[in-house]
Design goal:
With 414 residues, this protein is an alpha+beta fold. Helix content is 42%, strand content 11%.
């Protein structure tokens, strides 16, 4: 394995990096990759707002109509009930402290979609983070979550829980986590246009925020878990620079995981949108009501880091996309357009709104969050007018079309 590869040195090439290595041209809709994450975690705000999801695989446990009604703040009558995702029974954590006199104020509130997920969680990280098995960790985790929510209003892009799970898995000797820390935790600055740029986490106000979190994380792993071999995480917890590096790893490599049961239902319902006007009306009203009640975070349940998926580089004109059709944290990467053998697959690190912004706006986000400037075909084509957005370009094209039409009319009159 190559060590300390920077993100911009890694890439996903069709026919070479894909698992089966077959010599084929990937057509639109073909699956390039399916992968389980190294680590995943529910967003802290989602948990506080009672999004019921499996603590391990993030599978939504609410039925589609239950979630719709809760998020909208009123009873929602969903068309085509045969498409609704049913409720999943909860499987609760069964870890307990060996001390019969241990306090129970911060008992474990974790639940899962199956016994398999519960057992995987216990083995990978929950044996260290469970407040029922180790009552000392409960108050510290509670304080960490409060500090996190205070500094990070929704929508979140990562969470303190993702960091805690990563460290716990490393303490437990999880091979994939140790490989991830070795392979991805690397650069925190870059030279862009002749200027040394540091990741935003090395600047204020993030420095002050991380300075608050670091001693609490140190207490959690080095005081509340005495007797554990914590040598694998010392450089990420005991020193601020290593703590910052770990956050940069999570920030640069994690992606949002969309497992909302209502989102799955609405995607299936859209098949009827053209035929049945009531469907379009219902979806518009449902999402408007939800946004009014819970704000801008709806479909993303949490975030995750993947070893292979993280090799996909960015383009403002992506030829691939990530999705979660299984309703769990398993990612599926599919082609948006044909990709030949030896060609690189690209996804977008930016959301649809940012992709429509000007090149300067896109570059500002990429510079601050990913330490690079994109040189895709779209960025190159906008080099002469980097402040022009897609809407400006469309307005300009419309104006040119109108001028052409006026000129044609004048020629006819002459």
């Amino acid at each position: 394995m190559e060590k300390k590869k920077q993100r911009d040195e890694r890439k996903f090439v069709v026919g070479i990096d894909n698992e089966d290595g077959k010599d084929w041209v990937c057509e639109e809709g073909n699956v390039l990759l399916e992968e389980d994450p190294v680590v995943s975690a529910q967003f802290c705000w989602n948990k506080l707002c009672k999004y019921e999801a499996c603590e391990y695989c993030l599978k939504s446990l609410e039925s589609s109509d239950e979630m719709a009604s809760r998020l909208a703040g009123r009873k929602m009558d969903c068309p085509h009930p045969e498409l609704l995702i049913p409720r999943v029974p909860k499987v609760y954590c069964n870890l307990r402290s060996d001390d019969p006199l241990s306090p129970t104020e911060h008992g474990c509130d974790s639940f899962y979609c199956s016994e398999e997920c519960r057992d995987l969680a216990h083995r990978k990280y929950h044996n260290i983070l469970c407040p029922s098995a180790n009552p000392l960790v409960g108050p510290t985790i509670h304080t960490l979550e409060e500090h996190w929510r205070e500094f990070h209003p929704p929508p979140e892009t990562t969470s303190i829980t993702l960091l805690l799970k990563t460290l716990a898995q490393a303490v437990n000797g999880d091979d994939a986590t140790l490989e991830m820390l070795d392979l991805l935790c690397c650069h925190t600055q870059a030279v862009l246009d002749g200027e040394v740029v540091q990741h935003k986490l090395f600047q204020e106000p993030f420095l002050t925020h991380l300075a608050t979190l670091q001693p609490l994380v140190q207490t959690l792993f080095f005081e509340c878990n005495l007797g554990k071999d914590t040598s694998t995480i010392e450089k990420f917890v005991l020193k601020m620079e290593g703590f910052q590096q770990l956050w940069v790893l999570l920030g640069m490599n994690s992606i949002g995981v969309g497992t909302s049961s209502f989102a799955q239902y609405s995607n299936a319902l859209r098949e009827y949108e053209d035929e049945e006007p009531i469907v379009e009306k219902f979806l518009d009203e449902a999402y408007d009501s939800m946004h009014d009640v819970v704000g801008p975070f709806l479909d993303a349940e949490g975030s995750a880091v993947f070893l292979k998926q993280s090799a996909l580089n960015h383009s403002c004109v992506p030829n691939a996309q990530c999705g979660f059709p299984s309703g769990t944290h398993t990612v599926r990467v599919t082609a948006l357009s044909p990709i030949g053998k030896g060609q690189e697959a690209f996804i977008s690190y930016l959301d649809e709104c940012l992709l429509c912004c000007s090149r300067n706006t896109r570059w500002e986000d990429l510079r601050n969050n990913y330490l690079f400037l994109c040189d895709c075909e779209k960025c190159q084509s906008q080099a002469s007018n980097p402040d022009q957005s897609d809407d400006d370009e469309e307005d300009s094209d419309d104006g040119e079309d109108e001028e052409d039409e006026d000129e044609d009319e004048r020629e006819k009159e002459e």
